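The pair is quoted verbatim below.
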Amino acid sequence: MTVPEIIEIAIGALTGLGASTGFLLALFIGFTVLIGIPKLRSTSRKTLVIRNLDDLDGQVNYFPPTTPRGPVDQLASPELLEQANRKQ
């Protein structure tokens, strides 16, 4: 092999690598842009779809700390009750 052939092979390899990299970047960036477009649609307070807590516009109701939370009340666990009794 001569030097010009090696240079031609190297240039061809770099061109192919650059083309495949550019194609993959365009594919991934295009896909993320297309997926991101629905997130940019305008929201209305009257829709039934709530995407985050900001869409509720102050309608978030939080439970007080004394509210039982299912079959096991983590606020009234034996460990926490024992620790509270020690502090008194």
Notes: The chain has one domain: 3-87. The first helix runs from residue 3 to 36. The two ends are 90 Å apart (CA to CA). The helical segments are 3-36, 78-87.
